[in-house]
Specification:
The radius of gyration is 18 Å and the shape is elongated. Helix 1 runs antiparallel to helix 2. It is mostly helical. Helix content is about 70%, strand content about 0%. The chain is built from 4 helices and no strands. The longest helix is centred in the middle third of the chain and has 35 residues.
Length: about 110
């Protein structure tokens, strides 16, 4: 049983390393990506600074590029390789949440 799930688990954890960048960019953009130059004078928006406005575009670009890269890795590793080798998809799909393990490990160690 470990042999059947060990490979997919390792692959998902390795894919989770670049997925850390995707999750970080998505969290940052959700928190600060809404800021524009007009928002600097609004008292109801805390945290909108010039740095956040300047970084909004590059963070969105990094999010798109790394997101597409991780998506391509997932399609190749989870769908194409098992189907080509005629292996069942069940172990690959059941270990899919392991992609978030590197991000969770970094966030727990940062506290």
């Amino acid at each position: 049983m470990i042999r059947r799930y060990g490979g997919p688990l390792l692959v998902h954890v390795l894919i989770g390393i670049p997925a850390v960048v995707v999750v970080w960019c998505a969290r940052w953009y959700a928190a600060y990506g809404h800021c524009g130059l007009d928002d600097l004078e609004r008292p109801d928006l805390d945290g909108c600074t010039y740095n956040q406005i300047d970084h909004s575009g590059p963070v969105l670009g990094l999010l798109v590029i790394t997101g597409l890269f991780v998506l391509a890795l997932m399609v190749i590793a989870v769908v194409l390789v098992p189907l080509r080798r005629e292996r069942p998809l069940k172990p690959w799909l059941l270990t899919l949440p392991a992609v978030l393990l590197p991000y969770l490990a970094l966030s727990v160690s940062a506290r």
